Amino acid sequence: MDRDTKATVRFIGHHEEDAQQLNSLLSNHENSAFSFEHVESLQDFIDAGAWGGGDIIILDISENPESRFEAISLLGQKIPETPIVVLTNDNEELGREAIRHGAQDYLIKGQLTTTGMSRNLLNAIQRHRGHVRQAESAPLLESATAVLNRLPIGVILVTADAKILFFNGKAKRYLERGDGLVVGPDRICRATLPGENRALANLLKETLAPEGSGEGESEFAISLTRMEADSPLNVMVAPIGTGVAGKGAVLFVSDPAEPVELSIETICRLYGLTPAEGRLTLGLTNGYKLDDLAEQWGVSMHTVRSQLRQVFRKTDTSRQSELVKLVLTGPAALQASPVL
Predict the structure, then answer these.
(1) Residue 22 pLDDT greater than 50, yes or no
(2) DSSP state, 31?
(3) Are 181 and 190 in contact (CB under 8 A)?
(4) Number of C-alpha atoms within 13 angstroms, CB side, residue 115?
(5) Which is it for the CA torsion 204, 210, 211, 213, positive or negative?
(6) Could you give the residue range(s) of every CATH 3.30.450.20 domain in the chain?
(7) Per-residue model confidence (pLDDT) at position 260
(8) 3-state secondary structure of 329
(9) What is the reported pLDDT for 338?
């Protein structure tokens, strides 16, 4: 709640002396942050359908608490945008039970002070608004997660110190195996072997270096040894976030034994690439390095580097990691499936 705005407090309770005490305490708050209304009858309030509610409701549950618990649930359905704080006698268990029924907090009559009550009410308003925003954004977040889970490659979002913020379904399977990549109770993403873990940490640091501090064609990729598989895990690291460099990174994790079957034709059509440039883009997306691709195709490194510069120009990227991120978060990847 903004510092200069007033919160309307609606007290619902039979006792006039309680209403006078609450009003007196709230009026003493600095900047007169509260306006106060008293409604004696909860049933009249419900029957009238006066669902404006105010910014917060204080509901007296010192009498007939069971019926008041039902009222909390009903008010929560009718005015979900309005937080409810209950007022009780010296019975904290009633207050905790009210929270389980949907109240944001509780006040005890014998312990009321201007500072304490004002703090509880303001915190309840802010906390409730946060819950409402989370509920409103939940479907969008679920949809975004579903899209990431459709990607045919592991996606792990990490902070600059490698703490995991999110991983999709494919990455979850890699992490659960604990072979090549692992995550501990501290949620730090690590390579299984100590030497490779140091290399991964350095790679993350280099990836998050300010733009322009490295060569555009530098490879922000690493192969991590797996003890229980013939092939390593390929990890491509790309920066994420805006503003100051170093906010975090995305790790694209792939198994070369299960290459991503993207359509070269689709890649070429989306980004205006030639077939050779599309083939190079797909090779990088599958975690291969430039020298491996040059040897596999029987061409010189000069040729593949020249093709890569053209791909950078056409896709408005400057790093291999940026290119891979562009492809794997674009429409081509959503139609892809692993080759089994």
Answers:
(1) yes
(2) G
(3) yes
(4) 0
(5) negative
(6) 151-338
(7) 67
(8) coil
(9) 43
d(C-alpha 185, C-alpha 202), whole Å: 22
Q: Please list the alpha-helical segments (H only) found in the chain.
A: 16-27, 42-48, 65-78, 92-100, 114-150, 169-177, 194-207, 264-271, 275-285, 290-297, 301-315, 320-328, 331-334
For domain 151-338, give the fold.
Beta-Lactamase (3.30.450)
Q: Which part of the chain is CATH 3.40.50.2300?
A: 7-143
What is the pTM for the complete model shown? 0.48
Say yes or no to pLDDT of 109 above 80. Answer: yes
pLDDT tens-place string over residues 66-91:
778 888 888 877 777 788 888 988 77
Which candidate, 89, 79, 132, 124, places its Cα nearest to that of 103? 124
| Residue whose tokens read 């991503």 | 260
Q: Which fold has domain 7-143?
A: Rossmann fold (3.40.50)
CA distances from 337 to 16, 150, 170, 322 (A): 69, 9, 12, 21
Query: What is the gyration radius of the CA atoms in the chain, in angstroms?
Result: 29
Centre a 10 Å sphere on the Cβ of residue 311 and count the other Cβ atoms it contains: 22
Q: How many residues does the chain have?
A: 340
- Which pair of structure tokens corresponds to residue 80? 């979900």
**What letter represents residue 155's amino acid?**
V
Beta-carbon contacts of residue 16 (< 8 Å; ≥ 6 apart) = 38, 40
- Crossing angle of helices 275-285 and 320-328, rounded to 10°: 90
pLDDT above 50: residue 336: yes
Residue pLDDT, tens place only, 45-63: 777 665 554 588 888 888 7
The secondary structure element, H or E, covering residue 276 is helix 275-285
Distance CA 323, CA 154 (A): 16
Does residue 116 contact residue 106 with C-beta atoms inside 8 Å?
no
What is the token pair recorded at 129? 């608004």
Going by C-alpha positions, the residue among 294, 259, 258, 291 that lies closest to residue 276 is 294
